[in-house]
Amino acid sequence: VQLQASGGGLVQAGGSLRLSCAASGRYALGWFRQAPGKEREFVAAISSYGTRTLYSGSVKGRFTISRDNAKSTVYLQMNSLKPEDTAVYYCAAGLSLSVDPDLYDYWGQGTQVTVSS
Question: How far apart are the first and last CA of the chain?
Fold first, then answer.
């Protein structure tokens, strides 16, 4: 399974970004993030057919995860960004939809998201 994340960048608070991750294979896909000095945390996940989604409480209502299986791509639309959203964002693939990073077997390289105040 190859995962390639893209779309990170610098944005002002209140702005939007869309992350993309090219993901081969039919897996549950998740987004996680890690800020400097902090542990990796769950952001959002979507089932293999896109019928179920999970969100962390800190992003629910602001972020939307979706997938286009025809393009083998998962997206994370991030709106109303806050400085505390600043982190390296990772996409991951696993057999089951979960918030637990240990249940994801494949990880892509991260993409930096920086939100300025």
Answer: 37
Strands lying side by side in the sheet with 17-23? 3-6, 17-23, 73-78, 63-68
- pLDDT, tens digit, 9 for 90 and up, residues 14-73: 999 999 999 888 899 999 999 999 999 999 999 999 999 999 999 999 999 999 989 899
How does DSSP assign 29-96, residue by residue?
EEEEEE-TTS--EEEEEE-TTSS-EEE-TTTBTTEEEEEETTTTEEEEEE-S--GGG-EEEEEEEESS
